[in-house]
Write a structure and sequence with these properties.
It is built from 23 helices and two strands. By secondary structure, it is mainly α. The chain has one domain: MFS general substrate transporter like domains (Growth Hormone, Chain: A, Up-down Bundle). It has a two-stranded antiparallel ribbon with strand order 1-2. The longest helix is centred in the middle third of the chain and has 35 residues. The two termini are about 20 Å apart.
């Protein structure tokens, strides 16, 4: 029987006598960085909709560009890593991330929405490299039996970055944008609108410019740190792509895991993106201005992320006693019940239910990842790419929910009805957890 001390050492830092403590720390910083990018972006759907006087559906093009970059670059990233190394993949990811962030500066000068979408796309091509590289590298850093727990531990630093992104979005973007609401902006003439737009875009771009400095500093640190390679026993660098794809497709746990990941990421992004729209409607009905309602909604969003972060650590502990798949199925069922409260009850109660959903989501991404990659062995890089490509759900499903919000629901507010989308997503995740609970 292993002691807690032995269990901890198996969890983190050694494999075949090689220490991974310093690489683990450096790679974990990347988890925080892409968490920051994800959650400074979600409120931008509402911000860009106001700045450019667009509908909610048009505003979700931010998410389409953001998660489209994940989808398009995941397979090229896997092939790049397969040919080179995990360190090369992380370096490439940080370089593309920095480039995308820096492109916000000329995008602001152009004053159009399209250059921002291009910047988001390039930024997330970098994030796709980082996630395709970092997740399997963490899985391979130690004992295979504790791989899912180890990934959950590393992923615990992702919501810390997310909290920082939310804090910056709330205090340095949303709170500093012009207080004119959407209706008031519609009454401005062209010259007034252009002046206001340039002012608001200047506010929006400043945090991204500072983010580029942080990314470049981490890139320098990474170049100076030795990152040990992890070779799979039966890894075949020069094998054609098709046999590996066939092996992955034949693996039911992996194939179903990609599907579950698509729906999970869709659920996560819909809940975190549209908490602002939902909260704005709730608080404006109680007499707040649109801007005040948005800021208050973002505070609820931060509480949701704090819960998400804390539950990551709780779940790492629970996984010592319960199978990850079984835990995920239980939390999926609770998330469905809470979302029914969002849809049917509404108001502040519904808002609290929506916050509670984040606690249920905390273990899902790394757990699906760990279960799906558990038996792919020599195809880890390509398998990781498929799971990252499944992040496309964060692009497709928010757009579907936005269409419901922009429509007229006959029996309830459209924003309430729209949360049927994540309900369906969590049903898929729950069934995956039940099927692979052993």
């Amino acid at each position: 029987m292993t002691t807690d001390k032995e269990n901890k050492s198996r969890l983190l830092v050694t494999r075949e006598g090689v220490s991974y403590v310093l690489p683990f720390i450096v790679v974990t910083c990347c988890f925080a960085l892409w968490g920051f990018a994800n959650d400074i972006t979600n409120p931008m759907v509402k911000a860009f909709s106001k700045i450019f006087r667009m509908s909610v559906t048009d505003g979700t093009l931010v998410q389409v560009a953001f998660y489209g970059g994940y989808f398009c670059m995941a397979l090229p990233a896997a092939l790049f890593i397969r040919r080179h190394s995990f360190k090369s993949g992380i370096v490439m990811g940080l370089a593309l991330y920095a480039l995308g962030v820096l492109l916000f500066i000329p995008a602001r000068a152009m004053g159009n929405f399209a250059p921002f979408l291009l910047a988001y796309f390039i930024l997330t091509c970098g994030l796709s490299f980082l996630e395709t590289t970092s997740n399997p590298y963490i899985l391979l850093m130690g004992d295979r039996e504790t791989a899912t727990r180890r990934l959950n531990f590393a992923q615990s630093f992702n919501p810390i970055g997310s909290l920082a992104g939310m804090f910056v979005a709330m205090n340095f973007i949303q709170a500093r944008l012009s207080p004119l609401d959407t209706a008031q902006r519609a009454t401005l003439d062209d010259a007034q609108f252009e002046a206001l737009k340039q002012s608001d875009l200047g506010v929006l771009v400043q945090p991204y410019a500072l983010l580029s400095v942080v990314i470049l500093l981490l890139l320098v640190v990474l170049l100076l740190v030795r990152i040990p390679s992890v070779q799979q026993v039966s890894r075949k660098r020069n094998e054609p792509l098709l046999p590996a794809v066939k092996r992955l497709w034949a693996n039911k746990a992996y194939r179903n895991g990609v599907l579950a990941q698509f729906f999970y990421v869709g659920a996560q992004i819909t809940c975190w993106t549209f908490i602002i729209q939902y909260g704005t409607r709730v608080f404006m009905a109680q007499g707040l201005t649109e801007q005040a309602a948005e800021v208050l909604s973002q505070r609820y969003n931060i509480v949701a992320m704090v819960l998400f972060c804390l539950m990551r650590f709780v779940n790492i502990y629970l996984m010592k006693y319960f199978k990850p798949g079984k835990l995920m199925a239980c939390f999926g069922a609770v998330a469905i019940v809470l979302l029914l409260g969002v849809i049917l009850v509404g108001g502040r109660v519904g808002m609290c239910c929506l916050v509670g959903v984040s606690a249920c989501m905390s273990l899902m991404f790394p757990t699906i990842y760990g279960i799906a990659l558990g038996g792919v062995h020599e195809d880890t890089e390509l398998g990781s790419a498929g799971l990252i490509m499944a992040i496309l759900g964060g692009s497709v499903l928010p757009a579907l929910q936005a269409m419901i919000i922009d429509s007229d629901a006959p029996f309830m507010p459209a924003v309430n009805a729209s949360f049927v989308v994540p309900v369906v997503c969590f049903v898929v995740v729950m069934l995956y957890g039940l099927r692979y609970s052993r």
